[in-house]
Amino acid sequence: MELRKIKNWNVLLYYIGILAVIIGVILLLPLSILPFYKNEMNFAISFICPSLVCIILGVVLVRIFKCDTNKNLSVGEDAVIVVSAWILATVFSAIPFMISQNLNFTQAYFESVSGWTTTGLSVIDVESTPHIFLIYRSIMQFFGGVGIVLVMVSALSSTFGMKLYNSEGHSDKILPNLIKSSRMILSIYLGYVIAGTALYVITGMPIFDAINHSIAALSTGGFSTKLESIGFYDNVYIELITIILMILGTISFATHVLLVKGRFKEILKIGEIRFMFLILGIAIPLITFVSLKDLYGGLYKGCRVALFEIVSALSTTGFSTVGYNNWPPFAMFIMIILMITGGGAGSTSGGIKLYRVYLMMKQLVWNIKSKFLPEHFVKKHYVYKAEGKVIINKDDVIEIYNYICAYIVIFVLGVATMLAYKYPLHEAMFEFSSALGTVGLSVGITSPTAPSLILWVEIIGMLLGRLEIWVIFIAIFKIAKKAITK
């Protein structure tokens, strides 16, 4: 029994070591822009030092704990690997901000977590931030969106690839071969980034801004190079390109595979895709006519603002074209609901996820219909996902209700903490729904002067939202159990 425990720890530390090496390499990527911004060469050491430490740590772990990876992971060990990798990534990624941007650990860690979780909330002044740190934030969002595990699997053959992939918040099934699937996903996303960058440049955006916004929109991250976000450009074509990229970011990886194969009929069958467009079709005219038409002096401007902001909220991207300080309560309430709902399951977006809310609504309809059926009548219920028709059983529904319940409890606790600091209720709800849903929209609570406890509450919310709650809880329970039984 003791031997098995040691072997299991070997497997855990071996895979954590591999992921540490990958994180170290990612930390070096911002250096690629230095030939174009030679005056920022002095910032190189801020990335090289944590990168080398991370790579050395990873190599040591891989060499010391090299083991037979054909052994099966026990329940919860996949969660430990994934959570450990994310902690490593966010901690080491905070160091460059501390070295060169004079942020304290809380601020630096907040910025790092916001990047990796593709949230987009920020405590730095982007107007005075060097280019190397702006591209660094976008790089974090790209790899945080597709997932560290997916990057590892694309480079290496992994016995535990699917288990780790699922533990990182992806439930979709893509291709039988996960390695080919992961490489295809990375290729698709890089293609989107290149296409988005080109379109931005054509419509007048500087190339550096175009690269950053293309990555941030696709990863549903929302980090901008401008304080006014997309609103800085006041360009309807730039807004439309951003909307397309945000929608692409909010559909699942498996749906992207169907998209590049031209299987559009299958995409239109997918339940959560239909549900997404239903929500957009209701929310956009509703907010436009009830709240924004008069606020922005006309139907065109009100509809334009509503379209962009609603897509940004539902996709959990966090880009904006306007401020929210003068928005009426009804519009703010709808935005909060959209941020809590979130984007597609198996995508880069956050929130409860469209699939869960969609299935909850379907279950309500099924329950009502069942009241009018014969007493012993049995009917199988199903929904369409990217992989085809999926039969829904009672356990699936219970799992979704449990997740939504846990999400709401965490949301209430986060809002309560902000209320204790005397923030108004609507602002506290908006800000924490943005953090927990990994959205990035803000009414001003998140700032360099925000209390440390508020930033840490948002940090916890962002991590729970990105890794989908249970993974973190399972990892903590597993580590505690091993420590007690050691």
TrEMBL record:
Q: Note the superkingdom of the native organism.
A: Bacteria
**What membrane topology was assigned to this protein in its record?**
Multi-pass membrane protein
Which keywords does UniProt give here?
Answer: Cell membrane, Ion transport, Membrane, Transmembrane, Transmembrane helix, Transport
UniProt-annotated location(s) = Cell membrane
Question: Is Phosphoprotein set as a keyword in this record?
Answer: no
Pfam families, per database record: TrkH
Q: Which InterPro entries match?
A: Cat_transpt
Q: Which family does it belong to?
A: Belongs to the TrkH potassium transport family.
Q: Which PANTHER family match?
A: TRK SYSTEM POTASSIUM UPTAKE PROTEIN TRKG-RELATED
* Protein name (Swiss-Prot/TrEMBL): TrkH family potassium uptake protein
Q: Which organism is it from?
A: Romboutsia faecis
The lineage is: Bacteria, Bacillati, Bacillota, Clostridia, Peptostreptococcales
